[in-house]
Amino acid sequence: MKHHVAGKHLNRNSAHRKALRMNFAVSVIKHERVSTTLAKAKALRPFIEKMITLAKRGDESDKLHRIRTAVSYLQDKEAVKKLFDELAPRFANRAGGYTRILRLPDARIGDGSTRAILELVDNDVLERQIKAAEEAESVVDEDAEAEANA
Hints:
By secondary structure, this protein is α+β, with helices and mostly antiparallel strands. The protein is 59% helix and 14% strand.
């Protein structure tokens, strides 16, 4: 019997789980919205929440220690910079619950696994994508209009 066995193994050995946790956390921090399986999202959510809590807690006297701890966990200085400079101030007044898991209606084609989106709350990813699409559409319209006038 598996009494008091914490965490999901995700059919990986411990080194692979550690690498998965690190890469997944870096992706969520950089992109703020990641599509994955429901099992991975549920298993990795606590680690991401702990990283954000690490970035926002404490004062300036131990900030260097917290940055070095985050770098040792994430192994990506750009992600740590964004974590401390952008995400920590954004979530300064929120007492936990920094991520959201959205189940997607369709299963993955290869193995039928339930898909999900893990995203940070208060993100503007969709707004940026819509704005970029509108800008690209306006450029195409301007090009078509210029060709018609020529």
